[in-house]
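Case study B.
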Amino acid sequence: MKRILSTARTEFRIALRNRWVSIALAVMAVFSLVLALAGSAPTGGLGVDRLSVTVASLTSLSVYLIPLLALLMSFDAIAGEAERGTLPLLLAYPIAREAVLIGKLAAHLAILALALLLGHGLAAGVAIWNDPEALTGLPALWRLSWSSVLLGATFLGAGYALSALSRRPSGAAGLAIGLWLGLVVLYDLGLLSAIVADNGGWFTTEAFPVALLVNPADAFRLFNLTASGATAAAAGVGGAADTIPLWQSLASVLLWPLAALALAAAAFRKVTP
Amino acid sequence: MMTSTLTISQLTKRFGEVAALTGVSLSVAPGERVALLGHNGAGKSTMMKIILGLIPATSGQISVCDAAPGSIAARRSVAYLPENVAFHPALTGEEQLRHYLVLRGESPSQAMGLLEKVGLAQAARRRIGTYSKGMRQRVGLAQALIGQPRLLVLDEPTSGLDPVSRREFYALLDDLAKQGASILLSSHALTEVEARTDRIVILSKGRMVAEGSLAELRRRADLPVTLHVTARNGSAPEIARSLPGAILVDGALHLTCTQSEKLAQLGRIAGLGDKVADLDVLPPSLEDLYSHFSRGTVQ
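Model:
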């Protein structure tokens, strides 16, 4: 346990000096503020409180931003150590490889959590300042916050796995961007075009909900929109939220971090320095 | 303390078709200092990585402090200094050592003491990114001293160190060996290994071609001894006549003879009386021994 904590502290220090902490905080703060200030613009007066609307916007933003931040922080984790030449010495120390991963994960998750705390805090502040009713949106914001941390954990784990598989930071960076584009951007486009082509057939009714649940980013969006009942404020893939029960998207949100971390551990175990 | 710290028998390692190590057997006793010599690519680093459990052996048995290489028990008692040791440039020397201390289950407060030991106390709070190669090497040495390692595996430990630091480093190793730690080190600087190790192992193309103390290796190789005789003004030609085989180089006479002829030859030179200004006896150097044994496998 001491070893994991020391690893986390060291990684946090490195991220602080590499400006990753300030980058994550600044990005989250700026985007959250912009969305909170422009919160009512896209939906107009819907009869929902202002914070709930902001949460719906933040959810759409987080689907893109959290995986990107997580992958950018994690792609270097193992490949970077291998390239710098610090890996052989680290692995000669009496610490399990899983413990090394958990230490790094703890540090990177802490950074994400700090960024979320700042961003969501600012968003809540702005919403409540402008609309006292916004207090009713706080549970939705809280749900968004913790599920964002879990989404971050999923993509951090995926980043570590890619980092261990490629063994070179440049290769890992390429894979990480590829994964982000694939899961977060192209996946939804592919699903939408498939639905259009399918025209209400088997794919739309049977395969589509499953396809949404197996993608951690889609499951995250689905979970937050279903839980807050804010589907009206969301368009596109989010519109499917009504048809999938909450427990299914929740299960996906909870299980993916574990699966990603297991993948990362399996990939790291195969690395020979 | 009766059993050896490190026992290797019939170790073989293949990378695909390439044999990196073939049938190497070696054991290192507590308190013993063993130098591993060999060309680049002779298999030294590979052997060290196998001992540490970083890469698996193809065949053969290895026991490190009565445990399997790479097991947590073995890693607890083995310290390692990799070749060209590196650290994260964003950390300071002190932060890096504190982390390593915790990983070894020691108190991080020992960090400054260790850095003082290797002469880095002044730079402890500077980032490692600003360190010179020699300073990084010292951080590497400091981390290898953590705790009470029973076996130190040091890959080219003195590369990048100046002669004074090298001497200090070997003094540190002597202390550790006196406390019962076994030391296995590789080096290119053969002369420094000569005086500072109990036993020398020569690897060539993945095979162990010689093993023993320096004196034993000298005896076995039976390489010629070189004598340098400096003549007094003008007497060089006369001396050359009485010492067959001598060559005149810059006013001094160089001649070689086998170990068994050495005393007779010295007697003859002493007999020349005051014609001789000075005499140097040069035993075969470790370099000579090394190339002698390395060549043996090639033929």
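The mean pLDDT of chain A is 87. The remaining cases will be described in the next quarterly update.
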